[in-house]
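In the laboratory, one determines a bound structure by crystallizing the protein with its ligand and collecting diffraction data. In a computational setting the workflow is compressed into a single prediction: the sequence and the ligand go in, and a structural description comes out. We illustrate the idea with fe (ii) ion.
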Amino acid sequence: NRHVVVFGVDMTTTQREGGGVCPATDADGTCIDGLYTNVVVDDDGRHGSAGVGMEEDEDGEGEGMRNPVVLPSDEGDDDDDHAEKNGSCADEDERCATYAKSGGCKSNPGYMTYHCASTCGTCDAVDAAAKAAEFAVKDWNTAPCKDDEYECKEWAVSGECEVNPNHAVHRAWSATRRPRVFLYCDMYHSSSNQFGIGQRVGSEETKARIAQSIEYMKTVWTDEKFLSVRHRCMNQHEDCSFWASSGECEKNPSYMILQCAPACSTCEKLDISQRCPIEPGNEVIWKAGDLNALMERIVDDADGSGDYVQYNPTALSRPKLKRDGTPAPGVEKDGPWIVVLENFVSPEEADRIVEIGKAQGYKRSADVGKEKPDGSHADHVSESRTSHNTWCKEASCYDDPLVAPVVERVANVTGTEVKNAEYLQLLQYEPGQYYRQHHDYIFHHRRLPCGVRILTLFIYLNDVEEGGGTRFNRLGITVQPKKGKAVLWPSVKDEHPEEKDGRTDHEAMPVLKGIKYGANAWIHNRDYKKAYESNCQ
Ligand SMILES: O=C(O)CCC(=O)C(=O)O
Ligand SMILES: [Fe+2]
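The predicted complex, in C-alpha cell form:
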C-alpha cells in the first residue's frame, strides 16, 4: 500500500499498467504523473506524510507549538565496542568499524548513533529519530514558534542535507553537538509541503524555483530575523512557484509577495512593519505644539483679519490657556479642541458629493477588525456601527470639479497636505442608524508609514430633520448637522502628536427622522496616499 504525498494531501495511489505508480489522477482517471512534486511513501513507514498546516486559529497565530522533539540518547550503552551488528539498518560511513574500535560509539554518540547505527547497534534509535522527524516535520508545518515562547532555536534545521534520497535521516546539530531536529532528507528535498500548498511542476524553471525556495526556507527557519513570520510564510496557491519562475514576483508584487512568499523569497514582507517601512523623507507633519498653533490660528485669528473668517469658526471646547500662557477668554473648562466651521462646503459641493455617493452605492460600514496573517487588518461589521458608506477614492470622485476643491480645502484649512488625508469617506444614515461611542485614532497606524490620524474634519452634507448629531461623550457636547457645516477635532495630544487624546471620543447619534449625509476627512501625521498605494495603510 503505497501513498503519495502531493502537497500535503495524502493520496492512495493507483497502480499503472506497466508497474509504474501514478501519483495522482484527474477527474476522468487520467494519470497526471509529473505534474506535481511528490514524495513516495514506502511501506516501511519511514517516510511520513507532512500535512499542510494552513489552518489558523482565531488570532491568526496558529496553535501553540507542541513540545520540541525529544531525541533518543544512547546513555547506558557503555559497551559499544562490542556492540552487536544489527542487520536492520546500514552504516552510512565506511569507517564505522574503525571508529567503533577506538570507542567512538560512546565517545561520539551524536555522530555514531546515526551514521554507524548498524555497528553501534542503534538502529532502533534511528527509527525513533525517524518517527520524531515525522512529528518534527508535521509540527514544522502546523505549529509556529510563538515569539519568545518555547525553545524555538532548537528547531534549527540542517543545512547539510545531501540530495541523496537514500539518506533517510539527517540532522541538525546544536552548539552542544546534541542532535536536535531530524528531517527526512528526501522529503525535505523533493517536496515543498513545508511551505504551504504543494506546487504544480510544469517546467524545469518551476522545479528550479522550488529548489531555490527550499534553500531560502532553510534560512527562514533558522535565522532569528524571521521568527515572527516563519510560521505563516506559505505558498497559498499551487502555481506560486510557476508564477515566480515567470517573473510574477516583480510584475505583480502586491499579490505575490504575500500569497507566494516562499516562492518569491519574501517571507520577511509578511511582517507589515518590514513590508511597509517608514522611509526617510516620510516625515511627520506635526511636532509638539503644532496642534494648538493651528487651532489658535483658526479660531483666534478669525476676528476679521485671518483667513478663516469666512467659516465663522467657533471653539465648542478648547484648552483653558493659550500658547502664550494667557487664559482663553470665557473658557472655564479645559478641554480638547472641538471647532465648528460654518459653510465649509457650498450647497452645490454638498449636493454633488451626496450624488456621487449615491451613484457609487452606500454599503454597510465596517470597523477595523482583527489583524490578518499578512499584518493588515480585516474589516469588521459590528452592531456598534450601522451606517452605510462609500469612499471617494476613484478619480471620478476626487477629481470631480465640485469635489476636488473640497479636498484641497481640507488640506489648506488644516495646514496639512492632500497626501496626508485619507480619501473622503461618504456616509449615509437612515432613520435608526448610528455609530456608537468610539475614537478615530487607530493604534496600529503608529508603526505604519501613514502615521496616526491626527485630525478629523467631519462635513455635514445635508440638513437632518431630527437626530443624527455628533456627540462628544466625555465633553457633553453635541454638534447638530447642518448642510455645509464642518466640525474639526484632533485625535492626538498637542504635546505628543503620536499619542491618542482619549477626550475626543464621540458618537453619531441615531437619526430619528430623515436621512443624514456626511463625509469624513481623516488626516494622518505622515503620507497616507503613498501608504494606501502600497497596501500599507
Ligand atoms: O456621523 C457622525 O456624526 C460622526 C461619524 C464618525 O464619527 C465616524 O464616522 O468616525
Ligand atoms: Fe468617528
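Residues 1-87, 133-193 have pLDDT under 50 and may be disordered. Keep in mind that any predicted model is a hypothesis to be tested, not a measurement.
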